[in-house]
Design goal:
Layout lengths: L35 H12 L3 E2 H4 L5 H6 L5 E3 L3 E2 L9 E2 L9 H12 L3 E6 L10 H14 L4 E5 L9 H7 L4 E3 L9 H4 L5 H14 L4 E8 L5 H13 L4 E6 L16 H13 L4 E4 L9 H19 L1
Parallel strand pairs: 2-5, 3-4, 5-6, 6-7, 7-8, 8-9, 9-10
Antiparallel strand pairs: 1-2
Helix pairs in contact: 4-5, 5-6, 6-8
Length: 315
């Protein structure tokens, strides 16, 4: 019997020269956490045939999050149409959308008894709307099954898809997140399929379409950016009225991925957080292990409190 043919996870990176993987400093390393709750979360994801970005992107926080029964669900399949140099999600030609997926996500949220859920997706450039309607259907399914659960979506940029973002805005998630990922200068090598100002405009459009939605974006550092460039991105995000900023250390998944330029220290991250708060963000999470959905439930509660305090102060 012939052995099964294994699909290449990153075909677009196969011919790139190898980049040595740097040894992680002590402040990056995490102990492996596997609890009864961790395995129960994994079982539920398998039972409902759901993909998680926690696994696909090799998130360093998976042990802690799954032990708290928090999982970030990645919809529209596990294959992305983009080939970003930093990302560990598989690339290639995706399968057709699964019409039953929104319902399965809603059931999993209900079984996990989540008070806050983060739903993300691969890029689907093959679809006319980039998957916007599927995302909206998932929001509505969760809202129907779990009306008390707050919903955060982390979406693609819908580049070249016209007003596709409006479909998601109209579904009224509590938090609309789209990550800029890096500084404009590095887009050609880090996010070659994306455009910095398209991503920035999407965030601005979300706030203009529904001012009650919290908007959120994230950056990685360690790709070759300068502190001055990061502060300029902060200014751009505040000009788009983005409420919450996450900043974390880039970690290189394989030798074929973008190299780590340097590891920013915890003290560097403290300075970034101070700068972001001084620029007026309602919320900031800036640590080496910060990721978009890490502690998202706690961040959402803090966002609501910060908005209420600001409204009270403005009266």
């Amino acid at each position: 019997m012939n052995a099964p043919v294994l699909r290449q996870r990153h075909p677009e990176k196969a011919h790139r020269p190898d980049n040595a993987i740097s040894r992680k400093p002590k402040w990056i390393r995490r102990k492996k956490i596997e609890s009864q709750e961790y395995y129960e979360t994994r079982r539920l994801m398998r039972e409902h045939d759901l993909t998680t970005v926690c696994e696909e992107a090799a998130c360093p926080n998976i042990g802690e999050c799954w032990s708290k029964q928090h999982a970030t669900m990645m919809i529209m399949g596990e294959t992305c149409t983009r080939g970003c140099s930093f990302c560990n999600v598989a690339t290639g030609k995706p399968d057709a959308l699964d019409a039953f997926e929104p319902g399965r996500v809603a059931k999993a949220v209900q079984k996990l008894n989540l008070r806050h859920v983060v739903i993300t997706s691969v890029d689907r450039d093959d679809l006319d709307d980039g998957g916007a309607d599927h995302i909206a259907q998932t929001i509505r399914a969760v809202r129907h099954n779990c009306p008390e659960t707050s919903i955060e979506v982390l979406t693609p940029d819908f580049l070249g898809k016209g007003d596709a973002g409006d479909i998601v805005f109209e579904a009224a998630p509590d938090v609309f997140n789209h990550n800029l990922e890096t500084v404009p200068r590095l887009y050609p090598t880090v996010r070659p399929g994306a455009r910095y100002y398209q991503s920035l405009r999407l965030l601005d459009d979300a706030k203009r379409a529904n001012p009650s939605i919290f908007t959120k974006s994230g950056l990685m550092v360690g790709l070759g950016e300068t502190p001055e460039e990061v502060r300029q991105v902060m200014d751009d995000l505040r000009a788009a009225n983005v409420d919450f900023l996450t900043v974390g250390q880039y970690l290189q998944p394989t030798a074929k991925h973008h190299r780590v330029d340097r590891f920013w220290t915890p003290e560097d991250f403290e300075k970034l957080e101070q700068a972001a708060r001084a620029k007026g963000f309602l919320g900031v999470s800036a640590t080496p292990l910060t990721r978009s959905s890490f502690h998202a439930d706690e961040d959402f509660a803090a966002l609501k409190q910060a908005r209420e305090a600001k409204l009270a102060a403005d009266k």
